[in-house]
Design brief:
Its main location: cytoplasm. By secondary structure, the chain is α/β, with parallel strands linked by helices. The protein is built from 7 helices and 7 strands, in the order E-H-E-E-H-E-H-E-H-E-H-H-H-E. It has one domain: Rossmann fold. Bound molecules: NADP nicotinamide-adenine-dinucleotide phosphate. The site of NADP nicotinamide-adenine-dinucleotide phosphate has 27 residues, from helix 1 and helix 5.
């Protein structure tokens, strides 16, 4: 029996892929990974569940199988899957894209966090939830209305979960990963300067080499998980540790 179970969303690329690689190489860790894309990796400690997390009816049906009742010392949920959404000012957004973004960035991690607490509240395991946030959760960015709003709401949900489970065997974090060199950043650089006034700044981040390496961010997340007792605040930023 593995000592640790990691449930990770958005493992197929970017930061999630780096977190997956970081944890697969550890002893005694089993990973349940959820993205739309299934990676071509053979590892006895990896189970991949290919689902679209914005399809909430599908997710709802899978919840029981995602959180097995089993004897692990530590159970970790990392809600990492996320989408920058349409980069356009409010007034030019499409309702169907807004719905997909809210489902993926906010409701899916809320469903997963809720099920996680329900499943493990009365177990003896150490339970850790990390909801991947963004500096945009506390800073209004023109063109990112849906992204800023969903990240802000998820941070508040995480704060409430932490408040409700203070005396229990739970730790909750809303973690900003910094500006990371992933496809999400490439998508941001492809947007239009009409719709996104900060375009040049984000293009400069790339050309000046200011983006973080996903592997280094994954190592920081591993450090946080291995040292939760050192982190008292729910709101965390990898650039601060
Ligand atoms: N990159 C940054 O600078 C930055 C900064 C702050 C915060 N963040 C946050 O960090 C997290 C990871 O971002 P990233 O930069 O690594 O993004 P990314 O490279 O675009 O990767 C996103 C991941 O989410 C998965 N995903 C997207 N839509 C999905 C869906 N409908 N259902 C299931 N999985 C889905 C993708 O897999 P599939 O396409 O295979 O489904 C992929 O594995 C996000 O929450 C993002 O908001 C990133």
């Amino acid at each position: 029996m593995s000592k640790t179970l990691l449930i990770l969303t958005g493992h197929s690329k970017g930061l999630g892929r780096a977190i997956l690689d970081q944890f697969l190489k550890k002893e005694g860790v089993e990973v349940l990974a959820i993205s739309r894309t299934k990676l071509n990796i053979e590892a006895s400690n990896l189970t991949q569940l290919p689902i679209d997390l914005s399809e909430l009816e599908v997710l709802d049906k899978e919840l029981e199988s995602i959180f097995p009742i089993a004897n692990y010392e530590t159970i970790i949920l990392i809600n990492n899957a996320g989408w920058i959404g349409e980069i356009k000012p409010i007034g030019k957004l499409h309702p169907s894209e807004m719905r997909t973004q809210v489902n993926l960035n906010l409701l899916a991690p809320m469903f997963l966090t809720n099920s996680f607490v329900k499943s493990y509240k009365f177990t003896s395991s150490k339970n850790i939830v990390i909801n991947i946030s963004s500096g945009a959760s506390s800073r209004p960015v023109s063109g990112w209305g849906g992204y800023c709003s969903t990240k802000a709401a998820l941070a508040m949900f995480t704060l409430v979960a932490a408040k409700e489970n203070k005396s229990d065997n739970f730790k909750f974090f809303s973690l900003a990963p910094g500006i990371v060199d992933t496809e999400m950043q490439a998508d941001i650089r492809k947007s239009s300067d009409v719709d996104f006034p900060e375009l040049e700044k984000f293009q400069d981040f790339k050309s000046n080499g200011d983006l973080s390496d996903p592997k280094e961010v994954a190592e920081k997340i591993d450090y946080l998980i291995s040292n939760v007792e050192k982190f008292n605040e729910v709101i965390q930023d990898v650039r601060k540790f």
